[in-house]
TrEMBL record:
Record key words, sorted: Coiled coil, Membrane, Transmembrane, Transmembrane helix
Superkingdom of origin organism: Bacteria
Record-annotated CusB-like beta-barrel domain positions: 258-299
Name used for this protein in its record: HlyD family secretion protein
Amino acid sequence: MNKKNKYTVTDQIITRITAWVAGAIVIALAIWGVFSLWDLYKFEETNDAQVQEYINPVISRAGGFIVAVKFDENQEMKKGDTLLVIDNREYVIQQQQTEAALLNARSQLKVLESNVQTLTKTSQVNHSQIAAAQAKLLKQQLDYARYQKLYAVESATKQQLENVEALKDVADADLQSTRESYQASLSKINDTQTQQVVVKAEIKRLEALLDRHKLDVTYTVITAPYNCRMGRRSVEKGQMIDAGQVLAYIVDEETDKWVVANYKETQIGLMRIGEAAEIEADAYPGKKFKGVIISLSPATGSSFSLLPPDNSTGNYVKIVQRVPVRIRLTGARKEIDLLKAGMNVNVAISKNKS
């Protein structure tokens, strides 16, 4: 009988403890339910959200062998710091060849300019000889007319008249020759000036080519375009690379970070640009980050997919679509830097509109 009473008391104690535990659980669940309902009433929440920031590839604009790599993965770099150095000897040789060709073309231009000056003076001499030849021809024409009169009155012989006529013809021929020499000198000047135009065009081409080769030389030293943190590295010293090849990735630390929260279409009706948002990262439970809505996508995510759904095919099933909402992180940069691109976060935006 005593043993029976002992078990009964034990059972009563266990029952009481179980009842208290169950009651505590019910109360805890009720409190959790109240807070959850309050959050659902007050906030639009989603866990389909990720941290984003600008991640850019480092792309080579010149090909060649890498002679130096000046960074490691995850290293912080300042704007202008050297990341990679490519063997530039081929590019320097090309630059020197172009410089030599440019020097040669400029020398040719100076020679042509000197030739123009010389031909101009020669032309001036020929032009002055025309006047002398005209005067000589005029004298011979007057002598011929005089001897014609003398021959008519038999005061001069036919031979003398023929001699004077021959001298007149020679003077006329000299005048024509002098004029042709003058025209030829003018043509040479025009030809030389045309050659100058050609050489000047070649100089411009070589100057542009030289600028290009100088750019190619600068491309062999790759520097950080802004303050950044290095990401994955895919090259090593001694490796042969081609122009356009991706060498590494960098994360821009000068621009803001943001969160892309993919809300259901039924949740965005009251959202407006400029509204505050509360963000909690899975990596930092309990720690709250602040943000502000800066834009809402002009279309749902599925509309931007490679193969958007076509409901007119007849296989229509209504699915709630999601609309990306872009939220800029605000607050101290030190805290924002705790969040890395790709991290999952929970976002809550207040429903209460003032």
